[in-house]
Amino acid sequence: MVTTIALIGLGPGAEPHAKSLLDLAGRVNVKAAASRTEARTQVFADRFGFPVTTDIDRVIADPAIQAVIVLTPASAHLEIAERCLRAGKHVLVEKPLELTVERAEKLVRAGRQAGKRVGVVLQHRFRPASLRLRAAIDAGELGQITAAWMLVPWWRPQAYYDEPGRGTMARDGGGVLMTQAIHTLDLFRSLVGVRQVIAAQAVTTAVHRMETEDFASALVRLGNGAPGTIIATTAAYPGDPERIEITGSKGMASLVGGGLRLSAIGGVDETITAEAGTGSGAGIMDFPHDAHRAVLTDFLDAIEQDRDPAVTGEEALASQRLIADILAAARASQIITKM
């Protein structure tokens, strides 16, 4: 089965999707790649060879297009997704779902009411190391989880936030948690669960001039009641790969970028190596597109098999609610400040 697809939004985040669609040429027909910016469409066409347009209305109205990948800033996700769903199209949305939990909820409801598939691009779940870790947890290889923590020590130079809209509530809906750390936070939550945010802080450090936070941390209670910690920043020069550490009664797992080490008590260590970048530094697109290709493959499978994608709107919404809870706890503690 060949699915006819369109892309709406051709910023830097469209690159791994375009590469993935080229890889999946036997399964997809990219009928249009749309942006309201003429120069952006031309650059995209020259690089990837897809037909381009600035007429987003025509793309949404085209009955031949079965699914749309929405790659605009988060502030436009709801409007475009709702229109696509009303036009009978399946929708794959870049993270985050929308600017606020309320708008994200509306988008998810729209998908269910339309009877169409809504997937969300949270590609860290699809890395081979992430899949192996999930299988190990499900099989009880770590035993009872006793603690877990995640760290995103990334770097973004001030020039990144000087671009219009970057790091603002109006366009991005938040700072490091919503824009960079959401991938690791989503994977962390999906692996170990988060029952409660106990305490949190969110700060704009002296490193950046921006509206939203570039450092956040939280003490949380995991799904089984064990302690957990969340730390994320874009003020850690030069930027290191994100990591998730999970300790259990039978061993420990350390997930660093796309690599994994599983260590069982009395057993043999297992290692999955990954040498590729993760976009942790100034080169924001410095990562392979393999996980994006896996997201798209799963989305195409979901359409063909008439099932939900692996990362549904509801799953993405749960991670966005956790971000909102962390920021709410920081405000309640009056630890949401500028340094």
Report on this structure:
This protein is α/β, with parallel strands linked by helices and 339 residues long. It folds into two domains: 3-122 and 292-310, NAD(P)-binding Rossmann-like Domain (Rossmann fold); 125-286 and 319-338, Dihydrodipicolinate Reductase, domain 2 (2-Layer Sandwich). The chain is 35% helix and 26% strand. The protein has helices spanning 14-23, 38-48, 56-61, 77-86, 101-114, 128-138, 158-162, 176-179, 182-192, 290-305, 313-332, and strands at residues 3-8, 28-34, 52-53, 67-70, 90-94, 118-121, 145-153, 194-204, 215-222, 227-233, 243-248, 251-256, 259-264, 270-272, 336-338. Strands 14-13-12-11-7-10-9-8-15 form a nine-stranded mixed β-sheet. Strands 3-2-1-4-5-6 form a six-stranded parallel β-sheet, with helices on both faces. α4 (77-86) links the parallel β4 (67-70) and β5 (90-94). α4 packs parallel to α5 (101-114), α5 (101-114) packs antiparallel against α11 (313-332) and α9 (182-192) packs across α11. The termini are far apart.
